[in-house]
Design goal:
This protein is 13% helix and 30% strand. With 211 residues, the chain is of the alpha/beta class.
Length: 211
């Protein structure tokens, strides 16, 4: 029975097969795993010529080689830096069946878009805008490329408190010196207000206990 390969190109050796070559093949498999987990690849998107065109990243079964601008195993690497001076909108495709995370860095020159998508993507994948020369974390589920959403940044300004406002950040004004944070009831954001119910003695006692 002959070997089979998974979507990363790792060779799954059959019992009794590849006698005398298991060491070499196992080392290749380990290199493939390392490549998929932490590998870096620099890929020009201008190999297909000027203007708008598609760069087809590939994965080759049982082959762990990965060299600059070579499409052979470009799609296996974790970090892929896209390069080249472009004079048209570019598309970069990932093979069908692949399931993994990617970090794509857009280092192209030229005010054109670069779209990352699966070879048979049912959506639009992810597109770097014409002036977006940044990095993005993506994943592909075997067909479609999806961007990993960034965490929402807190709202407000320096000195304000944050609170949960219907699953997003809300900001409470810092108020004035001597005010305390008070509740306005369920579903209503708290606010700073001048205390009228805490005596001086109680305030001192609370300060001693809570610092």
């Amino acid at each position: 029975m002959s070997s089979t390969y998974n979507y990363l190109g790792i060779e799954l050796m059959a019992t009794g097969a590849n006698a005398g070559t298991w060491g070499t093949k196992t080392n290749t498999n380990l290199n493939i795993i390392q490549q998929a987990a932490t590998g870096y690849h620099s890929q020009s998107v201008s190999l297909a010529g000027t203007g708008a065109n598609t760069t087809t990243l590939a994965i080759t079964d049982g082959d762990s080689t990965s060299t600059t601008d070579s499409l052979t195993n470009a799609a296996r690497n974790f970090v892929i830096e896209l390069t080249g001076t472009i004079s048209g909108n570019k598309i970069v495709t990932i093979p069908n069946g692949v399931e993994k995370f990617y970090c794509f860095k857009n280092s192209t020159s030229g005010a054109y878009t670069v779209q990352i998508k699966g070879a048979s993507d049912s959506g639009t994948g992810y597109t770097f805008a014409t002036t977006d020369k940044t990095s993005v974390l993506l994943y592909i589920n075997g067909q479609n490329v999806v961007a990993v959403s960034d965490a929402t940044e807190p709202g407000g300004t320096t000195g304000q408190l944050q609170y949960n406002s219907n699953n997003s950040f809300g900001a409470i004004s810092e108020g004035s010196s001597g005010q305390i944070l008070t509740s306005a009831g369920a579903g209503v954001p708290p606010a700073f207000a001048t205390s009228t119910a805490v005596s001086t003695g109680k305030a001192i006692a609370m300060a001693m206990i809570f610092g």
